[in-house]
Specification:
Elements (H helix, E strand, L loop, with lengths): L1 E5 L6 H10 L3 E5 L24 E4 L2 E4 L1 H11 L14 H23 L14 H12 L12 H12 L10 H11 L2 H11 L1
Parallel strand pairs: 1-2
Antiparallel strand pairs: 1-3, 3-4
Helix pairs in contact: 1-2, 1-5, 1-7, 2-3, 3-5, 5-6
The structure holds glutathione (GSH).
Glutathione binds next to loops.
Length: about 200
Amino acid sequence: MITLYHHPKTRSTRFLFLLEELEAAYTVQPVTTRKRDGSGAIDPANPHPHGKVPAISDDGVVVFESPAIALYLTDRFPKNRLGPLVGEAGRGAYLSWLAYYSGVLEPAFVSKFMNVEVPRGTAGWVAVEEAMPAVIARLSPGPYFLGGQFSALDVLYGTTFAMFDQSPLLPKSKVIEDYARRVTSRPAFARAMAKEAA
Ligand SMILES: N[C@@H](CCC(=O)N[C@@H](CS)C(=O)NCC(=O)O)C(=O)O
């Protein structure tokens, strides 16, 4: 049984969405986290090495960091085909864009948020203005990151773009707006939101 270490309205919320898409059996373990304003505290129950969310435990097997959790869960629960398995078409793209999410896209947004110029040739990521055209090119044929196959990539990227919808950090793009709407109009997203509210 999967345990999701969760704090509402954080990066762990999208794993409620993924677990609902997978129709996996899971329990939610609410945990406290440190906040930007200095409040909050690491929850000793949370197995993430920095007390961040999300983290999961699969009967004692701990997995942390969003792309790793996404990959673990889609390999572990293949029934609904939320990610290509080893040897299947699309596996290379799946792994690449999972790693890109936390290795390039998130640092790009954080750099922009902090008004820091991305050091060319040193940083492992690029500026938002370079990253987003690559993402848009990937998504333009639609409807999803892997073409017709909805995957855990869309859970990560779609919910992030939906969250940044009105933010000046995200360059305006109809491809991205339509994509984010497509992802968040899925029934599993509504179920996740209902669980979160409860
Ligand atoms: N790289 C991690 C980031 C996780 C993360 O920073 N989560 C935030 C909530 S959205 C958190 O737990 N913050 C508490 C802290 O920084 O101590 C992932 O993608 O899973």
